[in-house]
């Protein structure tokens, strides 16, 4: 008999919030009258681009790492990631006084590789288009005796990510909908767990790049679908299949998935920079992109959006939005 998929509860999210307090930032929630007028609703942006290590990932990485035994921590931590979870795990390891070895794709953004190394981690590279990072990362951890913290498919990681929505709703009060970028599904799974517990009627809307709609297809089919590794500017969402744990949560709690094009993402990045004075990486802008491009149906009056990260260097940002 197959083992039951681990569950994540609202109590897990609240425990994670207490655990990460003083380590992760309580990021600001911004509004824009111009944005509200364009969208036709009151929009609240949870700015995880101002989070430590530049994205929401420190929430889950630190929560999971802090729950390891002293013996496990002493041996060190391993992770695999295209960038943001890599940086977050490296930072979490440094905060907890241990080492980290991170498996990253060869084409990961330079700024993310450099930041990961800057936090003290050892980096091992692989080809994301021909090699299986989960298998490689698992083998790497086993060979070196390290505790593996995956980027999304782990109950403690999911609970930690849910603290972003917990903070947002604590600041805004009840919202009608929450729009969340979807990669492996950890952020939306944790956010949905928190949001639906607090406000059962809230709509949870995920956003994926058009070229990487594995979660949308999986939810429609009722089973996890695997696609070729997507080629999109949203590198943090360039994943071929949802996580096992995240999919089971999201099939219960997510109400809809919207898709955005790379052009939609660039327009949202430009709007955020020019009108709200914030820098978003492509994956961090997909929620905003879905609203600005009109890809969310039947917009309710009050909407929260998680802007999941801002890790992009000047050259790449200019290359994308400068045209």
Give the arrangement of secondary structure elements.
Blueprint: H1 10-20, E1 29-30, H2 33-39, E2 42-47, H3 57-66, H4 70-75, E3 77-80, H5 84-95, E4 100-105, H6 110-118, E5 122-126, H7 133-144, E6 147-148, H8 155-161, H9 163-172, E7 177-181, H10 186-198, E8 203-209, H11 214-221, H12 244-253, E9 256-260, H13 262-276, H14 286-292, E10 302-307, H15 314-321
Parallel strand pairs: 2-10, 3-4, 3-6, 4-5, 7-8, 7-10, 8-9
Antiparallel strand pairs: 1-2
What would your notes on this structure say?
The chain is of the alpha/beta class and 323 residues long. Helix content is 45%, strand content 15%. It has 15 helices and 10 strands. The strands form 2 sheets. A 6-stranded mixed β-sheet has the order 1-2-10-7-8-9, sandwiched between helices. Strand 7 (177-181), helix 10 and strand 8 form a beta-alpha-beta unit. It is globular, with a radius of gyration of 18 Å.
Which key phrases capture this entry?
single chain; about 325 residues; alpha/beta; 6-stranded mixed β-sheet; 4-stranded parallel β-sheet; 15 helices; 10 strands; about 45% helix; about 15% strand; globular
Q: Helical proportion?
A: 40-55%
Number of helices: 15
Rounded Rg: 18 Å
- The string of secondary-structure elements, in order, is HEHEHHEHEHEHEHHEHEHHEHHEH
């Amino acid at each position: 008999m197959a083992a039951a998929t681990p569950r994540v509860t609202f109590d897990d999210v609240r425990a994670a919030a207490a655990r990460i307090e003083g380590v992760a930032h309580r990021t600001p929630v911004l509004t824009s009258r111009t944005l509200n007028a364009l969208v036709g609703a009151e929009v609240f942006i949870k700015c995880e681009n101002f989070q430590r290590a530049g994205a929401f990932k420190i929430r889950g990485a630190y929560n999971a790492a802090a729950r390891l035994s002293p013996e496990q921590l002493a041996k060190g931590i391993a992770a695999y990631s295209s960038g943001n979870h890599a940086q977050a795990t490296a930072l979490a390891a440094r905060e907890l006084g241990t080492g980290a070895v991170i498996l990253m794709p060869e084409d990961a953004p330079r700024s993310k590789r450099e930041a990961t190394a800057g936090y003290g981690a050892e980096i091992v590279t692989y080809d994301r288009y021909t090699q299986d990072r989960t298998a490689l990362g698992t083998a790497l951890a086993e060979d070196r005796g390290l505790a593996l913290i995956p980027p999304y498919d782990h109950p403690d990681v999911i609970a930690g990510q849910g603290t972003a929505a917990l903070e947002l709703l604590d600041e805004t009060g009840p919202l009608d909908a929450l729009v969340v970028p979807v990669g492996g599904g950890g952020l939306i799974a944790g956010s949905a767990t928190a949001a639906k517990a607090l406000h059962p009627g809230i709509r949870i809307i995920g956003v994926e790049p058009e070229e990487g709609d594995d979660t949308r297809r999986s939810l429609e089919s009722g089973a996890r679908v695997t696609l070729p590794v997507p080629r999109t500017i949203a590198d943090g969402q360039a994943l071929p299949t949802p996580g096992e744990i995240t999919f089971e949560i999201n099939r219960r709690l997510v109400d809809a998935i919207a898709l955005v094009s790379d052009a939609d993402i660039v327009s949202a990045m430009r709007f955020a920079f020019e009108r709200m004075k914030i820098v978003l990486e492509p994956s961090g802008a997909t929620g905003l992109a879905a609203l600005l491009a009109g890809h969310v149906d039947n917009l309710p009056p009050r909407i929260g959006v998680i802007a999941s990260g801002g890790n992009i260097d000047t050259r790449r940002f200019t290359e994308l939005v400068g045209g």
